[in-house]
């Protein structure tokens, strides 16, 4: 029987996905990758889902790649092709998160290390328990940050802090991660899931397509000059201005009522 490595639960318009390898701090295996990607695809394809939370079972969020997984073994007994694992597993995961049609929140309940940290940081918003921590563990095994880490870290906290976190591999407590702008919010451990669900419900009631396009525009603008960014904004606003949610938002504002957004 296949083990449920990703548990799914739906509350209203919010889908919660729980990484479920607690005895191994939810570290990534090929099987976990396959189930997580399938669960994200299912959430993306379900029109009733308007926000997603990803969290971890037990005392950790995700400790990164499980180095004992068969994915990391070379068939001839030689050096593993880590690049092939990145291309086969982590690239699709990172791209799926950044292309979700709804907001994705990482609720980090414990350690998030290596690819587990960067998977969390690739989500739209990160809420972490006060006891949680983030570790760019790659340098300790002769590697560089992956799962989008080299792109994310500098944009989130600047080059100096990105270099420091990546080179030292030191543990960064959640409170400090919030202080330097690496994550959105640090909350008491007992309040983590309630806080994540409250945020997810808030986002679920908002215009999902506009939120997804906000992510897309901000990511694209990081690689464009100012004039090209202005042009991108005009193109995206043109499309959104023809959609239902814009008309509904304006009508609700003028009528002084709560809007009902449906685009996705």
Describe the protein.
This protein folds into two domains: about 200 residues, 2-enoyl-CoA Hydratase, Chain A, domain 1 (Alpha-Beta Complex), CATH 3.90.226; about 50 residues, no CATH class. The chain is about 45% helix and about 15% strand. Strand 2, helix 1 and strand 3 form a beta-alpha-beta unit. It is globular, with a radius of gyration of 19 Å.
Structural class: alpha/beta
CATH topology of the largest domain: 2-enoyl-CoA Hydratase, Chain A, domain 1
Using the coordinates above, name the CATH class of the largest domain: Alpha Beta
Measure the end-to-end span: 35 Å
How would you describe the shape?
Answer: globular
Order of helices and strands: EEHEEHEEHEEHEHEHHHH
Low-confidence stretches: none
Give a short synopsis of this structure:
The protein has helices at residues 30-45, 82-98, 115-121, 149-168, 174-179, 192-204, 208-221, 226-241, 244-255, and strands at residues 6-11, 14-19, 51-56, 60-62, 104-108, 111-113, 125-129, 133-135, 171-173, 185-187. It is of the alpha/beta class. A hairpin with a 2-residue loop joins strand 1 and strand 2 (14-19).
List keywords for this structure.
264 residues, alpha/beta, 6-stranded mixed beta sheet, 4-stranded mixed beta sheet, 10 strands, 46% helix, 16% strand
